[in-house]
Amino acid sequence: MVPNHTLRHLIDQWLQMGTQFDPVLCTIDCLASLKKNLESDEATLENKCQTLQKIQALTEESQSGNSCLLQLGFLPLLLELLFGKTESKLSQECVKFAEQALSWVLRLMSPGEYEYLNMLNEESKLESFQVLFDQGTGKIKRSVCQVIEAISSSMETRELCAKLGKNRKLLKGLILLVHPTYEASDSGIKAISALCCLESNRQNLVQEGVISRLLTYIFDSERHERNLAPKALSTIELLLELESAKAALINNPNGIKALIKMVFRFSEHEGSESAVQSLTIICTDSLQARDEAISAGVLTQLLLLLQSQCSARTKTKARMLLKLLRSRWD
Ligand SMILES: *[C@@H]1O[C@H](CO)[C@@H](O)[C@H](O)[C@H]1NC(C)=O
């Protein structure tokens, strides 16, 4: 073995540097003092925004940045700053701060941390959450939607998820986001679909008119280059177990047409299965729906689907739907 003196020299140099300057320790110290600034009652919101920017700069390069912030308790602190004080009107500074703080919350939030969100079970905090969602910018609305998704995805926050589903104002707001021309509609669809994990939430969403908004989105999604139509459709499929959802679909002038549009698309098969399944559910109960589907061209779409590369399962379902419809054209 030949000792490598160059390497040894480099190691010595590095060790000496280490005693004078430890980048990791320094960052933790800096972050802890920046945290004090965020906690301080004297600091203005503008000041706190600057603090968040400094944290961004400090943690950008380091891999351990997020875990340092979590260890120092930044997540509950940010949530407290965002939702702790209820103001009925969002000021300009509030908006700026909320945009940044929310994006930090989303960055730090991982499944192990979801229970912090249970702070929203407190009435006053939920109210602030609502104010942020109602009056916030598109960016804030999108972030709030992502928080709702997080809440819906964890067992630890189930109770809160049910609480959100009872909040009619919030549901209305979410449903209004779903429109093919709105930037935030995709986040809205994801949040709505996530809330559907609870049966009680499904009922309320349908009552607030979610079906017709989702149908409009699907119907116009191509024209506006929106690509969450398959997700919107699988949400409808799930909701169709409710009689009220079936009625909303049948009574919607574009309802069956929107489903048929999704049966076969040249570019992709995502959504085909949900479309066929939803049509089957609707047509099983209603002769009128079968007639309407046939005159809107469902047969051509199904035949195209059967000749395509879609999954065997989808083809089986398509054949069953054809059989069901046959009774009307024989
Ligand atoms: C010795 O270490 C230096 C630094 O890592 C390296 O560049 C060099 O190639 C090494 N020399 C030998 C003979 O392995």
Automatic annotation (TrEMBL):
One of its GO terms (molecular function) is ubiquitin protein ligase activity. Pfam families: ARM_PUB (PF25598). It comes from the Eukaryota. It catalyses: S-ubiquitinyl-[E2 ubiquitin-conjugating enzyme]-L-cysteine + [acceptor protein]-L-lysine = [E2 ubiquitin-conjugating enzyme]-L-cysteine + N(6)-ubiquitinyl-[acceptor protein]-L-lysine. Keywords: Coiled coil, Transferase, Ubl conjugation pathway. InterPro entries: ARM-like, ARM-type_fold, ARM_PUB, PUB22/23/24-like. One of its GO terms (biological process) is protein ubiquitination. Its EC number is 2.3.2.27. It is an enzyme of class 2 (transferase). Residues 38-329 form the U-box domain. Residues 28-55 form a coiled coil. Pathway: Protein modification; protein ubiquitination. Functions as an E3 ubiquitin ligase. This is U-box domain-containing protein. It comes from Populus alba x Populus x berolinensis. The lineage of its organism: Eukaryota, Viridiplantae, Streptophyta, Embryophyta, Tracheophyta.
